[in-house]
Amino acid sequence: MDMTLRWYGRKFDTVTLKQIRQIPGVTGVISTLYDSVPGEAWETDKILALKNEIEDAGLKLLGIESVNIHDAIKVGSPDREQYIDNYITTLERLGQADIHMVCYNFMPVFDWTRTELARVRPDGSTVLAYTQEAVDKLNPEDMFASIEADSNGSILPGWEPERMAKIKDLFAMYKDVDDEKLFANLKYFLERIMPVCDKYDINMAIHPDDPAWSVFGLPRIIINKENILRMMKMVDNPHNGVTFCSGSYGTNLENDLPDMIRSLKGRIHFAHVRNLKFNTPTDFEESAHLSSDGSFDMYEIMLALYDIGFNGPIRPDHGRMIWDEVAMPGYGLYDRALGAAYLNGLWEAIVKSHR
Ligand code: DNO
What 3-state DSSP class applies to 13? Predict the structure, then answer.
């Protein structure tokens, strides 16, 4: 596996490539053209500029997170064709630039959802947190305002102000879309893009819905083992794969994470490994990566990845805000660096004990 960190680009990230290069064991980054809008075809020049900048810093660009999907594709409206064509052009250009992993999601309207971006933990660190009770009291428009107010001046992925300004229209677009329609639209999209993925050996890695259940009555399908296996079968091509995100699938305590990993052998193209601490089944906060700080057994998660021969990029995810760092919530340097070192330590021990 290749240990990486997510990097939003020089214009948007508080963390530098030089800092990332100095985290022991981190050899690459996962990045994106953060100012691109869903639906447009990415320009080759911009892709190459990003790649060169990363390589000049002594790192590799090991995948894109994300190439976002236009809502027309998710709702299946007639204008989806043009957006799928653009998506294919982007994939072609990424393939030509020797980039072979693309993370994306198929969540309606909202990407990941949290109700607090700076909950204080007993050690004084702050973390992202979620309570269903808080969501039930909110209307969707207020959700954006509360996220924006807490974001330390950064634009959070999936919460771009231009999108959120259209939130009522977005909800209206989805009014006739249920789980079955969303599955059908995902299938249609994947079938259209698989030929270009085959040609350039691009692994598509769908990110789970976070939290892994419906919010604000919107359909959500990438939530559990049954649905993800259905998706793998429905387009049975190894390039149709997943981002295994322990913190997203783990929001539902019924998801057995190591078992899910083992059932996805050969189809996990990217891993996000992080821990959550549950206070009640519907109130959780994002803890340090260490097993002892949260509710998951991180050793068992890493062992399952090892057992299935996982060899793609992996990254720590959402870190706590510690040591007075001011950064995009979840995406500071310090705690993600600790997470990377810890995951690398678990991996080394697993590899050596299997010799
Ligand atoms: C949150 C991230 C998600 C993820 C997208 C993938 O921090 O894990 O925003 O990148 O859902 O498209």
Answer: coil
